[in-house]
Amino acid sequence: MSRISYVYTPPELRGRGYASAVTAAVSQLVRAAGVRHIVLFADRANPISNRIYQRMGFEKQAEHPEYVFAAPGARRLES
Description:
- This protein is mainly alpha-helical and about 80 residues long.
- The protein is built from 2 helices and 2 strands, in the order E-H-E-H.
- It has a domain at about 1-55.
């Protein structure tokens, strides 16, 4: 099994297909290496990336919540 997560394109470079190309290339490489299962973690709040991933053949299987634990008073860095 291989896992793809945190695919990101800076805002000024979006819409050019970079993230799609990298995701497709990585998927092809791991398939060629004999990996049978590829897990892609995607942001469900991003309809554009989700449509792209569906066109690549990825299917939604499950949702996994993200929990962040921090010490009291600690600041959380937002991406």
